[in-house]
Design brief:
- The protein is of the alpha/beta class and 328 residues long.
- The protein has 9 helices and 12 strands.
- It has a 6-stranded mixed beta sheet with strand order 3-2-1-10-11-12. The protein has a 6-stranded mixed beta sheet with strand order 4-5-6-7-9-8.
- Helix 3 packs parallel to helix 4.
- The protein is globular.
- 38% of the residues are buried.
């Protein structure tokens, strides 16, 4: 009888020992996987950048800009963006509307309401009216009313979409004169320095309309204090991406730890936008760019005919779809 009891206890002890060992193994495995992920610091952020929509409700195509087709082009871009199920946000880098009238902004906002992803914007030179009703405050009020994710009361702002990522939106539009040039005032430069000072361990994404680095020379469209802004940005050593519009041209330029990204216009050839995936690793940050052209091919073909030089606006293949690394 004693031997049978011993065998019975041994069987029970063996079962519980295996069970405990199995649980411990699972816990250790999970802990190791978590530790490896934490050690590598591999996190990612994915967003769409759409620039120069130039929405006009009842416009006509009188220049290389297909403003008469702008509602259709915008709806197609929104449809393509909604097919992306893992976007963290959408950023419009200026000139959401072509003419700075309240009725145009009011007509455009319901289109953006179809987006399944939170959206934000930087002001463009077409967005506000000098001496008119559609001022900065009115524009911001209208966007806040239509967009529950937009809580900002200034034309420049920042937010943290994920841990270790900082988004900074600049307002480089001159509102005191009629001009296509840009300028970042001293107050905003001081604010930007504070934002960068507090984000030295983050991957920083800066969005603006008038570019710091031009895709091609244009004295009538340049940022007047581009040198000062560039020096400020490049004085920091953490990975920084600067996303720009205004020139309707496609170009990516890397200066050490700073990536300057000029993006095409939705309203003119090549009628495209970008999907950007940023991966944050232990020793580097990787930017993956995906090129998205409109599926309104008839409009695109007409836009190409009207473009002065299509190659300037499309850029090279490396400016459209590619992978760029910034070492930490």
């Amino acid at each position: 009888m004693g031997r049978r009891r011993n065998n019975k206890y041994k069987k029970k002890e063996g079962f519980f020992t295996k069970l405990v060992n199995g649980v411990i193994t699972l816990c250790l495995t999970a802990g190791m996987l978590w530790g490896l992920q934490a050690y590598s610091g591999a996190t990612s952020l994915k967003f769409a950048q759409v620039s120069d929509v130039h929405f006009l409700e009842n416009g006509s195509n009188t220049t290389f800009k297909m403003v008469g087709e702008s509602p259709r082009l915008l709806d197609d871009a929104i449809e393509q963006i909604n097919e992306q199920t893992d976007l963290d946000f959408v950023m419009f880098t200026g000139d959401l509307i072509d003419k700075s009238f309240e009725k145009e902004l009011r007509a455009m906002l319901p289109h953006l309401d179809k987006l399944n992803t939170p959206w934000y914007f930087a002001f463009g030179n077409h967005d506000r009216c000098i001496g008119g009703y559609l001022t900065t405050l009115v524009y911001l009020d209208m966007v806040r009313e239509a967009n529950p994710n937009f809580k900002f009361k200034k034309a420049y702002y920042s937010f943290e979409p994920k841990k270790n990522y900082k988004v900074i939106v600049l307002d480089d539009i001159i509102t005191t004169e009629i001009t296509s040039n840009g300028y970042v005032d001293e107050e905003q430069l001081k604010w930007l320095k504070k934002e960068l000072d507090s984000s030295k361990n983050d991957t920083v994404l800066i969005f603006m309309h008038v570019p710091v680095v031009e895709p091609f020379a244009s004295p009538n469209h340049r940022l007047r204090n581009a040198t000062a802004l560039k020096q400020l940005i490049e004085s920091y050593k953490n990975p920084i991406g600067v996303f720009q519009g205004h020139y309707h041209a496609t170009k990516i330029t890397q200066h050490d730890n700073v990536l300057y990204v000029n993006s095409p216009a939705l309203v003119s050839y090549p009628n495209a936008f970008r999907i950007v995936n940023v991966s944050n690793h232990k020793d580097k940050v990787v930017f993956d760019f995906t090129w998205k052209e409109t599926r309104e091919t008839t409009i695109q073909k007409m836009a190409k005919i009207l473009a002065f030089s299509s190659s300037i606006y499309t850029g090279a293949e490396k400016d459209q779809t590619g992978t760029y690394e910034i070492k930490k």
